Amino acid sequence: MATLEINSLRKRFGTIEVLKGIDISLEKGGFLVLVGPSGCGKSTLLNTIAGLEGISSGEIRIGGAVVNDLHPSKRDIAMVFQSYALYPNMSVAENIGFGMEMRGVPRAERDQAVASVARTLQIEHLLSRRPSQLSGGQRQRVAMGRALVRRPSVFLFDEPLSNLDAKLRVDMRVEIKRLHQTTGTTIVYVTHDQIEAMTLATKIAVLKNGELQQVGSPSEIYNRPANMFVADFMGSPA
Ligand code: ADP
Ligand code: MG
């Protein structure tokens, strides 16, 4: 059974249809990268999975259960955005543990979970710092920690690296790949960066104007693009 299944998903804003019948299935532990030009509907699709946007028709299943009408907090997901809003007056440890604190998780259990996530992300030495004392890459790691600590079935990333400089972007790409390999989390990752897509994905979905052009492994997409748009966008050999 797929961990994430999207069937005939449509989304309108007013009279404009932004997602025009999307079908996606992602197995447990899969890394789906959603690519496409700016404005094609990538963030909207991610937001509907997260429950931040309602859908016009279709179905979204997480772990087999239909979540169409489920509040974001009740969905088994966690999302990392491109702007990582950390709480400025809390330490890194408090930022990561905040969600658990709100849910009434006891202190000892919380500390243990925070320590374990910090180990995974290699930010143990930063736990007592404030966000203002961190670099961009470190902040992004803390934002990932905050999501990871929830142990979601599905991890959603919306262009998490696009605010970082080129060198850091490559480092973080390696980091995210390692995170995926060591935790076996199921990930949906949005980017408009083809290289990021090729290096991270187990499966790539190419979106254009709210319609999927092709879904396949990186090598399928690159070597056997379904149409000119995919070939162009992924930079496949002519
Ligand atoms: P991407 O993330 O691929 O750049 P988006 O999903 O953000 O694209 O946007 C897809 C389209 O939907 C764009 O044309 C955008 O203007 C429109 N859109 C996004 N959010 C809203 C909204 N809340 N209200 C109206 N239109 C929106
Ligand atoms: Mg976007």
TrEMBL record:
It is a peripheral membrane protein. GO terms for cellular component: ATP-binding cassette (ABC) transporter complex, substrate-binding subunit-containing. It comes from the Bacteria. Coiled coil: none annotated. Residues 4-234 form the ABC transporter domain. GO terms for biological process: carbohydrate transport. Keywords: ATP-binding, Nucleotide-binding, Transport. Involved in beta-(1-->2)glucan export. Transmembrane domains (TMD) form a pore in the inner membrane and the ATP-binding domain (NBD) is responsible for energy generation. Belongs to the ABC transporter superfamily. This is Sugar ABC transporter ATP-binding protein. It comes from Bradyrhizobium manausense. The chain holds residues 1 to 238 of 370 of the full protein.
